[in-house]
Amino acid sequence: MKKKRARGGEILILLGLVLLFASGRLYIRQKLHVKKERVQTCGAVLQDLQKSLPAQTTASADSLLSDPDGLPVLEVKGFDCIGKIEIPEAGLSFPVGSRFLTGEKAVIPMVLSVGENGSCKIGMVSTDTGSVRDGDEVIFTDVRGRVCRYVADLVTDDEKKADGKLVIAFSGGLQTTYVSCIVE
Q: Nearest to residue 99, comparing CAs of 76, 125, 81?
């Protein structure tokens, strides 16, 4: 007499794998949608911020970002912005939000913290840093048109090594790249 094998367990395992695959696809799709939305929001805020900045800029002898809380704030599309950062050689330009943005308002790059050595850390999301190189010029312009120029001194995956006066953290998901900048 032949024994019949029960297939119920195999079917449940197969069904579980299908559900895991479907939930993984849904998760990735949602992450891509959020990334696209952030990029669009950031671009719209930058465009309006550039219209609001004075046409005439003045060079600043000191690092404006040594006290980001003391910088003037301009509300653009509901976001409190303190200025913008440009890395011309890499083709990057983005608005910088106040440190006090929270929740859904934290979709634009913002000041994360000020270190003991006076360095200012700005967090970025969903931006490719592959084109940022050591020696690239980094320009911060505040909302009053004052400009401070930096040089990208180090591009690293280790936050402790990034000890310049300005540290830009580019987070691409699983890995964060730090660009350490010194005053020019």
A: 81
Number of domains in the chain: 1
| β 120-125/166-171 pair status | parallel
Inside any domain, residue 11: no
Distance (Å, rounded) from C-alpha 59 to C-alpha 139? 10
pLDDT (tens digit, 0 to 9) for every residue of the chain, 184 residues total? 566 666 778 888 999 999 999 999 999 898 788 777 777 888 888 888 888 888 777 776 566 666 667 778 888 888 888 888 888 888 888 888 887 666 555 677 777 766 655 567 677 655 555 677 888 898 888 888 888 888 887 676 776 666 677 778 777 666 677 777 777 7
- Residue 26 located in a structural domain: no
